[in-house]
Structure formats: structure tokens, C-alpha cells
Amino acid sequence: MKIEEYEIRKINDFLTLEDLKDKLASDNLILIKAYTDKLLEEKLLSYLTKEEIIKSEDYKSEIAKINYLASRTILNLVLKCLLEKEIDDLIVKRDKNNKPYVESTLGLKFNISHTEGLVLLAFFKREVGVDVEKINYKFEFKDILENCFTKDEIINIDNNIISFYRYWTAKEAYLKCDGIGIIRNLKEIEIISYGNKVIEISDNKNNIISRLQPLNYDDKYFGAICLEEN
Fold first, then answer.
1. Which segments of 138-207 are extended strands (E)?
2. For residue 45, what are the CA distances in angstroms to 54, 66, 87, 144, 174?
3. Counting Cβ atoms within 10 Å, is residue 154 exposed (0-12), middle (13-18) or buried (19+)?
4. How would you write 54-101 as a 3-class SS string?
5. pLDDT, tens digit (0-9, with 9 covering 90-100), for 8-63
6. What are the pLDDT digits (tens) for 128-157?
7. How close are the terminal C-alpha atoms of the chain, in Å?
8. How far apart are CA 87 and CA 110, in angstroms?
9. Model pTM greater than 0.90?
């Protein structure tokens, strides 16, 4: 499986998303990353529906608001291209686990993750989960280790905050792909190896071992991508 990445740093970069239809029809995973620190809210509003604009006003945090605007802009432009519909005519539904999806002949799946300064959207023909976090060196992660990780994982994390974020985002990506989210017991999902190119996770409840791909952007953002097994 090949990953094709598209990077957005300024408003004109969004226009490249209008020509992705052939790419979306391929067997490759399309990963779009948008750095939001220099994006202006007013420049994104024309790519949103009236309902989305109204919803954006409910966000009290400026970080959360720009993340919402950027992620919806990306999603709307990709779906407009894929479905050949106007943005106001797009319908995004949610399944029984509240995971968003859209009906299309390609059966395209997508997943969204965002953190301070960065938004990621992954598109694929099978279920996909993506998660990313910006390293917060002030975060007291040690307080939650025993509730979220197995003994072996805690040993491997070794009180290192970067290792914590690597392990945390891998579990999140797996559970988002699974469609359940973190309502599951996180200790049921155990990371048995973490390499530079492959993460192996054992789902002890379902007796499944999955392989994920780690993400690292500038040693500032860490994350992972998980795909539904064939």
C-alpha cells in the first residue's frame, strides 16, 4: 500500500484538492495534512455549508475553531470532486458508532485527526483510522499510564513523553479504524513492537494482530495510520 501525501500551508494549496478524483479511485491511501497556523478563518468560509459556518461559531477555542474549519474545507473539496456535487449538496452521515461516512460508488472511507497547528485527513477504499498529536512537554502523562497501558507497554514507554505520544496515537488510530473509539478498554489493545516503519498491535479481545504505519512530522507531531485488514 502506497501513501500519497498532500500538504497545505496556504489558502491556494486547497485548490489542488479539486483534482484528486483519479487518485481517490486508485488503491493508494491519500493523506492530506494542513498546517493551520497561518490559515485565515475568513478565507475558508466559502468552502463550508451554512450549517458548518454556524457550528464553527460555537467553538470557544481558536485552535479548535480553525481545526474544524480546515478539516471541513478539506473534506468538502474532496467530496465535491469525488461526487461531483456542490458543497451545499454534500451529505455526511454517521454510523452507529458516530463515525462519519459518505455514500459513494467507490466505497471511499475517511478519517480525521487534528491537534494544535495540524489537521490530517486520510482517504482509502477500506476502513482507515488516523491520529496525530503535537508534543506537549508539560503534559503529566505519567498519571494515566496504568489506566491506559499494559505493564509491558509502560516498561517500553520508560517515562519518555515522546514514547507516550507514539503509543497513545497508535492505539487511537487502531480504535478509530475499528470504529469503536476509546470507549474500549485501552489495555485490550497492546503494542507489541514499535519501529520506524511498522507498528504491531495485538487486539487481545478479538485475537487480531494489526500493522500500522507511524507518522512523524518534524519531531513535533507524532501519529499513526491504521488500515482495515484485507
1. 189-194, 199-203
2. 10, 11, 12, 38, 32
3. middle
4. HHHCCCCCHHHHHHHHHHHHHHHHHHHHHHCCCHHHCCCEECCCCCEE
5. 999 999 988 988 888 888 889 999 999 999 999 999 999 999 999 999 999 999 99
6. 999 999 999 999 999 999 999 999 999 999
7. 11
8. 17
9. yes
